[in-house]
């Protein structure tokens, strides 16, 4: 496939899970892809190498999404190396999970920084490079619509911010031909929330299809939105959740 040939994409948190699947899929569809990582340089380089081995173009960049300067630098470097930026996928996130009374101020601040402030800053920086046809796609969670168990208040709150951000971006950038869409995955089999981990069976049972999704299934929707299929979709959320919110 080459629908995205000539396009440049930046995927935050692109070294594992949904981010890695999105990075690979966008590259397979023809885009040059930069992917950010926080700590594991070896894993990020492995994803970039796999993309290159399959005939794509990829660049791994160290950037903690809680670090405003590093995040902006990653956007600037991507545009400098590849000659522009067409697609931003706000994927990096943290999953704080525990009793409400145990949440510390430090945990609160980091969750807000990564899950809410980071996507805003990345979108702000990336939009300056985008022309008509630009895409800002953020990865949220079905938990903002259906909090299925105790202990998820902080996660749900920080991810819910992406709804307002996406609607605002659609209005702010629509006149420039840039779209903004929020993808809401359901239970997805990643290291962060493995299908065989604690609570996995319960989460699978809460979907209409009775199973976890795969990162590749989320990536398929992202690729559709990044391509011609996303031209008239903006300011909205799309659930890819196996019926979790039904």
From TrEMBL:
EC number: 1.1.1.-
Transcription as UniProt keyword: no
Record-level Gene Ontology MF annotations: oxidoreductase activity
Keywords on record: Oxidoreductase
SUPFAM superfamilies tied to this protein: NAD(P)-binding Rossmann-fold domains (SSF51735)
InterPro entries for the chain: KR_dom, NAD(P)-bd_dom_sf, SDR_fam
Top-level taxon of origin: Bacteria
Ketoreductase domain sequence ranges: 7-188
Keyword Plastid: no
PANTHER family on file: OXIDOREDUCTASE, SHORT-CHAIN DEHYDROGENASE/REDUCTASE FAMILY (AFU_ORTHOLOGUE AFUA_5G02870), SHORT-CHAIN DEHYDROGENASE_REDUCTASE FAMILY PROTEIN
Family according to the record: Belongs to the short-chain dehydrogenases/reductases (SDR) family.
Protein name: SDR family NAD(P)-dependent oxidoreductase
